[in-house]
Amino acid sequence: MRRAIYPGSFDPITNGHLDVIERARKLFDEVIVAVAHNDEKEALFSLEERLQLLKDSVGKIDKVRIAQFDGLLVEFAVAQKASAVIRGLRAVSDFEFEFQMALMNRKLETGVETIFLMPKEEYTYLSSRIIKEIARLGGDVSSFVPPAVSKALVRKFAG
Ligand code: PNS
What we know:
This protein is an alpha/beta fold.
């Protein structure tokens, strides 16, 4: 059983994340999409909301499981018997942080390999942060995120 963890804040999930999940599914028997809940980042959506949006968006996809984790990512990966961590790489700007995280995770746990997957070119400019900003300013984000997320953003910023 080849299992991978796809960790992130997912605040909220975008079509770029979906694309990475689809690619990872082709390489692994199971992909655990794992929401970090000790992240220092101030989230727009609560952990429960982020998990619900993930369920609505990828909950029914075969070989995909949704989870949450607290503490170190590599410890969660070992506990789940996962051999790999998946991260999406969009541009050079992602590289420095991702490289640092991958090497540190490898130092902490040699049995877990980080694998970078590049989303489709049309998603390289997508980020949860930019999506939230556009939605907050009243822009239409429906072509960048799953339908459940688009609705949730409209509700969040209504009034
Ligand atoms: O979507 P993000 O915000 O880029 O995801 C970052 C995340 C959650 C993958 C990262 O912050 C993480 O792994 N947090 C868990 C704590 C941990 O293991 N930190 C050490 C990383 S070297």
